[in-house]
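Thread: quick sanity check before group meeting

JM: Hey all, I'm pulling together slides for Thursday and realized we never actually wrote out the predicted structure for the chain we discussed last week. Dropping the sequence here so it's in one place. If anyone has concerns about the input, flag it before I start.
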Amino acid sequence: MINKLDIPLETLTREKVLEENKRVHKLEDQFYLERHPEQTNFYQSRLVKKTVDQVCSLLDSPSEDILELGCGTGYLYLEFLRRGYKITGVDLSAEMISVLESKINKDDRKRSRLVVNDVETFADIDDKKYSAIIVSALLHHLYDFESVIKMYCDRLMPGGVFLIFFEPLKQNINSVIRYRIHQTLAGIDETIYRQKMIRQKISILEGEYHHADYQRQFGGIDPYRLKDLFGEKGLKTLQIDKYCARRFGLSSFLATRFLKTQNTFNLLAKK
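JM (edit): ok, ran it. Output follows.
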């Protein structure tokens, strides 16, 4: 299998994938969420609130410590912080961490800890255990996501919650008609998005993520493999949500509700 930059996948090592992620995420700035509206459109925003509510309902109190891996510019991180939780955010992009830091209210700073690092190195230097671990749009960037999951399951306190959020789902659309409608809708969605970015004079970073989105080159991630991994580490999977993430909320709603062409998933587990 050859990626879009014509470099054989077998030549990509853990170190090369990490290096490529550092390079690409260094390009991200205050326009990250504008470049990725699929994470904040009205459909996704409702899903974010629902998911945060579910996690909070499984925790004893807002005094619980939460760890978010891949916190980015903070659309999940800030939700937990606003609700009174103590939270540590880890991201390899200093630029994105800086954007997140600028969004935190002065009164909330004492409950916030932000760390610039990759998740594997952070695990080696941080021996703390957490009541909840959030992995946000991160696994598909990793060379070996299974070892990272196993590593952080050991950092979860008994009764703790593990959330996998916004990961690419291995698709299996077995209807030619639904697939064609799905592709047409996706094309319209992408065209409108590109026109909007041009009007706002925001670069799209097109083509930059091919190596960094390593697991996408294998079709995405199987949530049921994650369920098995959690089971091996003594966690029970409570819920797997599948949905279609598109640039705009209406496209996401139509594809999820009527076409059933899900391309993204969340998974919630408890120890």
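AS: nice. The longest strand covers residues 156-168. DSSP finds ten helices and seven strands in the chain.
JM: adding both to the slides.
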